[in-house]
Structure formats: structure tokens, C-alpha cells
Amino acid sequence: MTGPSQRREMAENAVARRGASIALACRAFGVSETCYRYGPKLRAENEEIADLLVGLTDARKTWGFGLCFLHLRNVKGHPWNHMA
Questions:
Q1: What single DSSP character describes residue 3?
Q2: Are the C-beta atoms of 61 and 67 separated by less than 8 Å?
Q3: Burial of residue 61 (number of CB atoms within 10 Å: 0-12, 13-18, 19+)
Q4: Which of 4, 20, 64, 73 could, after both became Cys, cross-link 14 (CB 3.0–4.6 A)?
Q5: Residues in the chain with pLDDT < 50?
Q6: CA separation (Å) from 27 to 15, 18, 23, 71?
Q7: Which superkingdom (predicted)?
Q8: Under a CB-based contact definition with an 8 Å cutoff, are residues 59 and 35 in contact?
Q9: pLDDT tens digits, one per residue of 13-24
Q10: What is the pLDDT, as a whole number, of residue 11?
Q11: Phi/psi at 45 (5° precision)
Q12: Residue partners of 25: CB distance under 8 A and separation at least 6
């Protein structure tokens, strides 16, 4: 049994080495095209978000995550999605 990351890698190899289309390779290996194209978030960006949230929660102890997120996005201008 192969995991999703292994199937994605096999699909990438089929596209790169065999010249198969992305759609065909994804169907052949049971990978969605969304999964095929997904690029993980950079660790540095995640650390930056975490540092900002920790600093904000230290300053505003009564604020929950939702308010902290909205403050960083709407007041400070960070373009992050809450699901990121």
C-alpha cells in the first residue's frame, strides 16, 4: 500500500519522465490534481505567524484566536488565510 505522498511522487515522475499529462498521471495513480499541485507552506512563514500570534496574545490576554487573526489581517495588513 502506498501513501498519498508516494502516489504524488509517482505521478510527478510519470509527467517528468514519460511526458504523461498531469490529468492522466493523477488518474493513473489515484491522486487529485489539487494534491498534485499543492505546495506546502514555508516553515519561515509559519514561524513568523506563530511569533506574531504569541506576541499579540501576550499583549491582549482576553483576545481569542479569531480576534487575534482578524487584528493581524485587517489592522496590520497580513494577507493570511485562517486555514493556512
A1: -
A2: no
A3: exposed
A4: 20
A5: 84
A6: 12, 15, 6, 42
A7: Bacteria
A8: no
A9: 999 999 999 999
A10: 96
A11: -65, -40
A12: 11, 12, 14, 15, 31, 36
